[in-house]
């Protein structure tokens, strides 16, 4: 049922009766999710409670953070997903904004594109050719900044798709590396690169939770003492005979990449991880991507469905029945016409009638019964604080 609802407005149509008053032209406060007809000759009004609210801004943000090494096949799949999403929303009031970040040693960030009207610009941004270096931390920082700065969209409507082969050895927005010393054919070197990981850990793959805890602890003592801007000359390097006791460029790049990704998830953004080109020739990089994705295979079809489904399961609207004084000082008090044949649920053009559910705490109704319960439920609480959920 979840995928069938999509963007269609769900609303509950109810009838209210007001105790008669002499005043005419009565006005009362209503919530954003409620519309009400004028009182008829019987002092009744038909009220619709809507999910989502008719005044709610149905805008979603989708940011792609793409490794420069992302294959043309993956790029085409992303574009196909966006084309299908575009076709789905064109007949709705929804809007999808798309941001593109391509990273090599730095992040190359697009402006926001409107999916409905700027598909050609999106395609051009995704397919741009960029080479040299790899800094996934910079890519994620840029993607996060795009989402963070869009204040008109709630976190639950923000999506980030991270596509990478997992190979990274730079960090920070300005590409930074660590002068980590190692021996090679009798010489002491300290250049940064993906091979630093194997030089330190051989062919072993770490248990990533433990690994990141250890890196965090080491960062507290090592700090940025051996950091330098990529391409420049380091002023200090780690002692070669104690190199395994120090963090290298890959250690820091992986740590900061993971930290930024987890922060995005904690802020409520929907985050997805996809491998850029299948298995990497660096086993630790492939394993890292599997860790980030929690070993879940994500398809663009699944991402598309998640974006299109803007009304989350568990959403609800709570509304209190009006009472008080009108603009003339006359008191009014609405009562719910609590008769089963007087209200119904609409999902798009489909109508559902209510069924009573036994409940000692309130009047409880269900709509569209399934084997495991009802798709929708209405709770009506009478008494002093008369309201619906």
Structure class: alpha+beta
C-alpha end-to-end distance: 20 Å
* Average pLDDT reading: 85
Helix content estimate = 25-40%
User: Which stretches of 5+ consecutive residues score pLDDT under 50?
Assistant: 1-9, 18-31
How many strands, what sense, and barrel or not for the largest sheet? 7 strands, antiparallel
**CA-based gyration radius:** 28 Å
What's the helix count?
Answer: 9
Q: Looking at the structure, what is the overall shape?
A: elongated
Can you count the beta strands?
22
* β-sheet strand percentage: 25-35%
Task: Set out the fold topology.
Layout: H1 2-5, E1 10-18, E2 34-36, E3 44-51, E4 59-67, H2 72-89, E5 95-103, E6 107-109, E7 113-114, H3 119-126, H4 136-149, E8 158-164, E9 176-178, E10 182-184, E11 187-189, H5 195-201, H6 208-222, E12 227-229, H7 249-266, E13 270-275, H8 283-292, H9 300-308, E14 319-320, E15 323-325, E16 331-336, E17 344-347, E18 350-352, E19 355-357, E20 363-370, E21 373-381, E22 387-388
Parallel strand pairs: 4-5, 4-8, 8-13
Antiparallel strand pairs: 1-3, 1-16, 1-17, 2-3, 5-6, 5-7, 9-12, 10-11, 14-22, 15-16, 17-18, 19-20, 20-21, 21-22
Helix pairs in contact: 2-3, 2-9, 4-7
How would you portray this structure in words?
- The chain has helices at residues 2-5, 72-89, 119-126, 136-149, 195-201, 208-222, 249-266, 283-292, 300-308; strands spanning 10-18, 34-36, 44-51, 59-67, 95-103, 107-109, 113-114, 158-164, 176-178, 182-184, 187-189, 227-229, 270-275, 319-320, 323-325, 331-336, 344-347, 350-352, 355-357, 363-370, 373-381, 387-388.
- Strands 1, 2, 3, 15, 16, 17 and 18 form a 7-stranded antiparallel sheet that branches.
- The longest helix is centred in the N-terminal third of the chain and has 18 residues, at 72-89.
- Mean pLDDT is 85; it is low at 1-9 and 18-31.
- It is elongated, with a radius of gyration of 28 Å.
- It has 389 residues and is of the alpha+beta class.
- It is built from 9 helices and 22 strands.
